[in-house]
Amino acid sequence: MSRRSAAWFGAEGKQGMIYRSWMRNQGYSGEVFDGRPVIGIATTWSELAPCNAHQQRIAESVKRGVWQAGGFPLEFPTTALGETLMRPTTMLFRNLLAMQAEELMRANPLDGLVLLSGCDKTTPGLLMAASSVDLPALMVTGGPMLNGKYQGRDVGSGTQIWRFEADLAAGRITEEECYFAEGCMARSNGHCMTMGTASTMASMAEALGMQLPYSATWPAVDARRYETAQRAGQRIVAMVDEDLRPSKIMTRRAFENAIRVNAAIGGSTNAVIHLLAIAGRLGVELVLDDFDALARDIPTLVNLQPSGEFLMEDFCYAGGLPAVMRELGSLLHADAVTVTGRTVGENVADAECWNREVIRTLADPFQPTGSGTAVLRGNLAPNGAVIKQSAASEHLLKHRGQALVFDSAEEYHAVCEDDDLPVDESTVLVVRNSGPRGYPGMPEVANVVLPAKLLRQGVQDMVRISDGRMSGTAYGTVVLHVAPEAAAGGPLALVRSGDWIELDVPARTLTLDVDDEELERRRAEWQPPPPAADRGWVRLYTEHVLQADQGLDLDFLVGGSGHPVPRESH
């Protein structure tokens, strides 16, 4: 069969000589241009992205597998997004990664793709790119860190930081203890080992069928991580021959599987935004309300932080994602195709659970049916908002309180330690202008720490509402992704301190108790914020980014244009 790469390496005359000759300066012998599949290995490696800093070794394992299967592997860099270092948020740059990777995939002589990701936005960014190009593609995530260890107990990255922050504000620990604990939480290569966004999106890639079984959970430093990468290299060569592309794998049924799996694992609310964006690139009909409707009959099975007790290393040894998917049984579409060439049902048919404390059964779940992500609507969120029920406090799921409004997270942090802050445990904290345009980039600032005076009183949680996101490693009764956002003129922009807000998660409502006439009067007085930038990526992003309920892709990137061979240079 004639391969796409043959337009380069099989070309005759001057152009063919140019393509082959310059590649040979790397020491490749002539037979690599004999028509074998050329496999691009898209890496998000960078020392500025700590979660992905070990991808060079993973890439070597992938290359070994490609060579073994008779392919020609070529590694290329894409934008690295390190959640822990980049400001104001890597979410501002997810679409930049997707756009850059898409153009590189299409512009180069590639027949298939292996996607190396890890940190939060790198997984969806590469999946979005591969979806738009629609060449055969397979993902290899970098794997979680080993469990953190501190004072004789396991501690989870991210989740424990929020707890340390609260303990420090309440005077229960010292700065010196926090400093020591830093090194105890991150003691190996890999991404967060809680069920944060990185672990969630690795699980989503596997649930969608885009990763080999068990790939989501092998620790980053486990030899089986590299064994899996080698098998991925072998498998992608076969996928090219089979023409097994993302559009054949990530169908509506695959997304339904992923949403249900996300509920079962207690996954991050950020999965909502990313899955909507990936589906948009493929033309799959997926809307915000699907995440509620499809998850209502799914209990939380996995007992992992931040909702539970254990960590990803424990999840791996308990049986990993295949054990969860087998337990879900008929709740999933078993006939969905995966990168293995087999169906979901075939992949997980023999999966075993080795620890029922970590992975519970449908008959005895960790949390009951309907404890996953809930979608809320009302006059405060006409286009929707979400809340992670498994990480919230049950007594706050139905709550009415007066708003205390802040126009930014920074404004709140400047006063949160004041003893005279007009707040009690019934107050509803509103933090706005944290959405896609407003910050910009929709950062993970919604789960602000509780006021210090309440922490000292022993208050552990209170209702918080924001048009921003929260880390998948975080917890609390936090209403997120309010759409439209305040900066786009959404009702959140009109809330004033003292207004009564009613949250009713069982009824799926979020209501501002202010009449329509008063809201219209306030709207007439409201002025939109000035543009965040007048040049560069930030300007492009803020002018074209979609709202949270639509996945935050850029409006002109929705959909795809396939993989036509670009015009020849002369």
Characterization of the model:
- The structure is a single chain.
- The chain is of the alpha/beta class and 570 residues long.
- Helix content is 34%, strand content 13%.
- It is built from 20 helices and 14 strands.
- It has helices at 6-9, 13-24, 55-68, 94-107, 122-133, 159-169, 175-185, 197-207, 223-242, 246-249, 252-265, 270-282, 288-293, 312-318, 320-328, 344-348, 409-413, 452-456, 516-525, 536-544, and strands at residues 38-43, 72-77, 112-117, 137-141, 148-150, 153-155, 373-378, 381-388, 398-406, 428-431, 464-466, 478-483, 500-504, 509-512.
- Strands 7-8-12-11-10-9-13-14 form an 8-stranded mixed β-sheet.
- Strand 13 and strand 14 (509-512) form a beta hairpin.
- Helix 5 runs parallel beside helix 12.
- It is globular and about 75 Å long.
- The model has no long low-confidence stretch (mean pLDDT 96).
- It comes from Pseudonocardia eucalypti.
- InterPro entries: Dihydro-acid_dehy_C (IPR042096), DiOHA_6PGluconate_deHydtase_CS (IPR020558), ILV_EDD_C (IPR056740), ILV_EDD_N (IPR000581), IlvD/EDD_N (IPR037237), Sugar_Degrad_Dehydratases (IPR052352).
- Residues 36-347 form the Dihydroxy-acid/6-phosphogluconate dehydratase N-terminal domain.
Q: Residue share in helices?
A: 25-40%
Instruction: Give the neighbour order of strands across the main sheet.
Output: 7-8-12-11-10-9-13-14
How large, in whole angstroms, is the Cα Rg? Answer: 24 Å
Intertermini distance: 27 Å
Main sheet: strands, sense, barrel: 8 strands, mixed
Class by helix and strand content?
alpha/beta
Which stretches of 5+ consecutive residues score pLDDT under 50?
none
What percentage of the residues does DSSP assign to strands (E)? 5-15%
* Form type: globular
On the 0 to 100 scale, the average pLDDT is 96
What's the number of extended β-strand segments?
A: 14
Helical segment count: 20
Pfam families: ILV_EDD_C (PF24877), ILVD_EDD_N (PF00920)
Protein name: IlvD/Edd family dehydratase
Family: Belongs to the IlvD/Edd family.
Keywords: 2Fe-2S, Amino-acid biosynthesis, Branched-chain amino acid biosynthesis, Iron, Iron-sulfur, Lyase, Metal-binding
